[in-house]
Design brief:
Elements (H helix, E strand, L loop, with lengths): L7 E2 L5 H10 L5 H11 L14 H10 E2 L4 E7 L5 E6 L5 E9 L2 E5 L3 E3 L8 H4 L2 E4 L2 H15 L7 E4 L9 H12 L11 E5 L3 H10 L4 E5 L5 H7 L2 H4 L2 H9 L9 E7 L7 H10 L5 E7 L13 H13 L3 E4 L13 H7 L3
Parallel strand pairs: 1-2, 6-9, 9-10, 10-11, 11-12, 12-13, 13-14
Antiparallel strand pairs: 3-4, 4-5, 5-6, 7-8
Helix pairs in contact: 1-2, 5-6, 11-12
Length: 350
């Protein structure tokens, strides 16, 4: 909760709201648009370098507001080009991000919570529980920081809200961040280049549908029947798979868009050929593609990735039934790029 003396963090404020705020400060409303562009288009964090503002206006901004990015505490590089970031927030909590190069794409995986309350059995982040929601400033701040790190060398092309946390459990802050990232006067990301991933919070999916933002939706499914899903994903007990799939059948998809189902393949849990066959049946009527993700083993969790032959056989069944099914090989394994690993290592002092 903000105290009377605390400066206003500008990163998470939309363009129109900035115009109103600066008007309240005694500036012309158009200054809000200029300030928004300085922050989100130019990546500027110092008011003193915003030379089209008068000295008086810059002093007001310095006194009453701030542009605060997360602090980068660790950056690791993998042989496949993947980079892992550990950020420290203003209150000392840490979150993670991953930068993934793929041909002409450069994708940043962004966190929406510190920790996670969903408790998926195979996910390290969920084992520690939820610490807190991230603010819209902290979500957008991850993007601004990485763009600053990249500078002119590379251009960030895609954003995936697939990092730590469940985006739809932090709905207002996540959607505010998405709107800021989409703004044509700021970062100007295309709606087709932002993906929000959820474990299946039905109320949040319905709210997202009503927003009509046009961004991509990915759903972490990870099982071919509700009973099996409930064993590894506690959210299924509240929002059963059958209800989730019914909602997704009616989800308003833009032309050419498909829902992405993420299916983490875990040996002996959800990787049988019967699982693949069931999956072809339960996804009927949903315009979708399936990402098959071999499990990335995590120390302390008793799960393993299936043999390569099993993974390919699983994919074959889906493809024979005319589904687009892509095997997503694990990236950055030697730098602990699976969600939560770097943060846990830092917390353990390793």
């Amino acid at each position: 909760m903000m105290t009377g003396n605390e400066k206003i963090d500008l990163i998470g404020i939309g363009r129109e709201e900035l115009c109103r705020m600066l008007s309240d400060f005694g500036m012309k409303p158009f200054r809000g648009k200029q300030l928004f562009q300085w922050i989100h288009k130019n990546g500027e964090t110092s008011f003193d370098r915003m030379t089209d503002f008068s000295k008086r206006d810059r002093e007001i901004l310095n006194q009453r507001t701030r542009i605060l990015l997360p602090a980068l505490t660790e950056q690791m590089h993998a042989s496949d080009g993947t980079e892992k970031f550990l950020y420290r927030l203003a209150d000392g909590h840490t979150i993670e991000g991953v930068l993934i190069p793929d041909r002409k794409r450069l994708t940043l995986c962004v966190s929406t919570q510190a920790g996670c309350a969903m408790g998926c059995a195979f996910c390290l982040t969920g084992q520690g529980g939820l610490v807190r929601h991230l603010t819209a400033s902290e979500i957008v701040g991850q993007v601004l920081l990485v763009r600053k790190i990249l500078q002119e060398k590379q251009r960030l092309t895609h954003i995936v809200l697939m990092g730590m946390g469940e985006p739809l459990a932090n709905y207002e802050n996540t959607i505010q961040a998405v709107r800021i990232l989409l703004d044509p006067m700021g970062a100007d990301f295309s709606k087709r280049k932002i993906t929000l991933s959820t474990c299946g919070l039905i109320p949040g999916i319905k709210r997202l549908a009503a927003e009509k933002l046009g961004i991509h939706l990915a759903v972490s499914l990870n099982a071919s029947d509700s009973l099996s899903r409930g064993r590894i994903m506690p959210v299924n007990r509240t929002y059963p798979m059958e209800e989730l799939l019914d909602v997704l059948r009616n989800y308003p998809l833009p032309v050419r868009n498909r829902i992405t189902f993420e299916y983490v393949l875990i040996h002996g849990i959800n990787d049988s050929l019967d699982d693949a066959t069931r999956l072809t049946r339960i996804l009927r009527g949903i315009r979708c593609k399936i990402n098959l993700i071999p499990y990335n083993p995590v120390q302390g969790l008793d799960f393993a990735s299936p043999p390569k032959r099993r993974i390919e056989a699983f994919q074959d069944i889906l493809q024979q039934n005319r589904y687009t099914a892509v095997i997503r090989e694990s990236r950055g394994r030697e730098i602990s790029a699976a969600c939560g690993q770097l943060r846990e290592r830092e917390r353990a002092g390793l």
